[in-house]
Amino acid sequence: MSGPVFGAPLPGAVGLSHLSPYDWEAADGLCGGSPHLHLVCTEAYVVTGGRGAVQTLSPDGHRDIPLRPGTVAWFTPGTVHRMVQGDGLRTTVLMQNSGLPEAGDAVFTFPPEVLADPGRYAAAAALPPGTGPETEAAARRRRDLAVEGYLGLREALVAGDAGPYREFQRAAARLVRDRVPVWRELWRAGALAAAERTGAHLDALAAGDPAHLGEATAYRAEPSRLGGFGMCGRRDEYALPGATVPYDGA
């Protein structure tokens, strides 16, 4: 195909990456990623290979959702999720709002004393740049700290006590409050703008004006980075408008 390589957002201004959960064993004997939640975004996993699971905490309680090729699993804001590696699990990740989770709409399930201190939280969540041994070690420490907090939340929720889970949600909201203005601008430029373009096209068609079809074209893209350290595992990313916003501690 000739023509532009890329230049327009993906459909609906979604975020996109490919993910393989970490194969590092955690304190409970399972291998996988760093448990966390998003505060305004729904996220989906489309399983393309292997086996595994996503564990969730929500008002529904604790769930362990099996993942296999063809499975689509998604979760709404406030759902704590932990991707668990089974055998070669690989997923395509779709994120609402132009990949806003990579701009900070993600809070790890660190223990309460870390969540209560914004500076300490930021230090624990940050990773050095690159994909070398130093970054890998920091990603593993971050994962282990998130699992430590997650196991406490899960134990309480399974026992019928939703208090620690609710307090974690409140702590997460406090941590991200100052970022909301920036997120709002990303949303306006991405998902909202995409919806408004559709409305404008519908208005034009209703008036018998198909002029926007004269701007038709096609795009393609290849991953811009392979094997980056994401929240849940090693991640392949795309330098598309809004597809994977640059790392912000995520």
Describe the protein in words.
InterPro entries: RmlC-like_jellyroll, RmlC_Cupin_sf. Keywords: Isomerase. The structure is a single chain. The chain is of the alpha+beta class. It has a single domain, classed as Jelly Rolls (Sandwich). 33% of the residues lie in helices and 26% in strands. The protein has 6 helices and 9 strands, in the order E-E-E-E-E-E-H-E-H-H-H-H-H-E-E. Strands 1, 3, 4, 5, 6, 8 and 9 form a 7-stranded antiparallel sheet that branches. A two-stranded antiparallel sheet has the order 2-7. Helix 4 (133-158) packs across helix 5 (163-176).
Key structural traits:
alpha+beta; Jelly Rolls; two-stranded antiparallel sheet; disordered N terminus
Query: Could you say how many structural domains there are in total?
Result: 1
What string gives the helices and strands in order? EEEEEEHEHHHHHEE
- Please identify which CATH superfamily we are dealing with: Jelly Rolls
CATH domain class name: Mainly Beta
Number of strands: 9
Rounded Rg:
19 Å
Gross morphology: globular
Largest sheet: 7 strands, antiparallel
What is the CATH topology assignment?
Jelly Rolls
Strand content: 25-35%
Structural class: alpha+beta
pLDDT < 50 stretches: 1-6
Instruction: Tell me the helix content.
Output: 25-40%
Treating each run of at least 4 consecutive H or I residues as one helix, how many helices?
Answer: 6
CATH architecture type: Sandwich
Distance between the termini: 34 Å
Mean pLDDT across all amino acids: 91
